[in-house]
């Protein structure tokens, strides 16, 4: 509902506390490539910042050594992971006053914020139900639509070689 949000961009914060180990095992390089492609190419809102806090030390190490070198400099400057040892640096990006009370801020409790957001979404129920009816008519498209496997498939060209 805020036009400034669409212009300024989104700051996404992810709390990694309590995430089980089996979740991290599912984060394969191919899956991460798909996620990054969706964020960069398909996400309709500008991502200004992604902050992960309470990140396990091993995940921070994997990100810094294996993933960070392969993403663009622009995205590197927008994604920051903070372990429990350096989580106070998070306040350099987001003021502490904006955090919920459970995380040391003074912006209300999580349950109160969740209830307010639920009320706001429910007040737009009619719009969500109406919006669900609108779809694209692919027969009017001038170019062939890109299929999922074409967008996220294996990159490169494959030619048949005839060897005598």
Based on CA atoms alone, the radius of gyration comes out at 21 Å
Count of β-strands: 3
Give the uncertain stretches in residue-range form. Answer: none
Describe the biggest sheet? 3 strands, parallel
**Element-by-element helix/strand order:** HEHHEHHEHHH
Any idea what the shape is? extended
Which structural class is indicated by helix and strand composition?
Answer: alpha/beta
- Strand residues, percent: 5-15%
What percentage of residues falls in helices of 4 or more residues? 40-55%
Quote the distance from N terminus to C terminus. 66 Å
Q: Largest sheet, order of strands side by side? A: 1-2-3
Rounded mean pLDDT is: 83
Count of DSSP-assigned helices: 8
List the keywords.
single chain, alpha/beta, 8 helices, 164 residues
What does it look like?
The structure is a single chain. With 164 residues, the chain is of the alpha/beta class. It has 8 helices and 3 strands; from the N terminus they run H-E-H-H-E-H-H-E-H-H-H. It has helices at 3-8, 21-25, 29-42, 57-67, 73-76, 110-123, 125-131, 148-152, and strands at 10-15, 47-53, 79-82.
């Amino acid at each position: 509902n805020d036009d400034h949000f669409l212009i300024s961009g989104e700051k996404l914060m992810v709390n990694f506390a309590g995430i089980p180990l089996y979740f991290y095992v599912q984060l394969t390089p191919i899956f991460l490539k798909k996620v990054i492609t969706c964020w960069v190419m398909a996400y309709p809102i500008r991502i200004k910042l992604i902050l992960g806090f309470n990140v396990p030390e091993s995940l921070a190490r994997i990100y810094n050594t294996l993933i960070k070198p392969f993403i663009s400099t622009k995205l590197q400057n927008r994604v920051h992971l903070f372990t429990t040892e350096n989580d106070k640096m998070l306040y350099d990006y987001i003021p502490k006053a904006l955090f919920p009370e459970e995380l040391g801020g003074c912006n209300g409790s999580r349950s109160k914020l969740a209830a307010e957001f639920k009320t706001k979404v429910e007040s737009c129920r009619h719009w969500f139900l109406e919006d669900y009816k609108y779809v694209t008519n692919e027969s009017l498209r001038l170019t062939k639509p890109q299929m999922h496997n074409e967008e996220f498939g294996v990159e490169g060209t494959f030619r048949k070689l005839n060897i005598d």
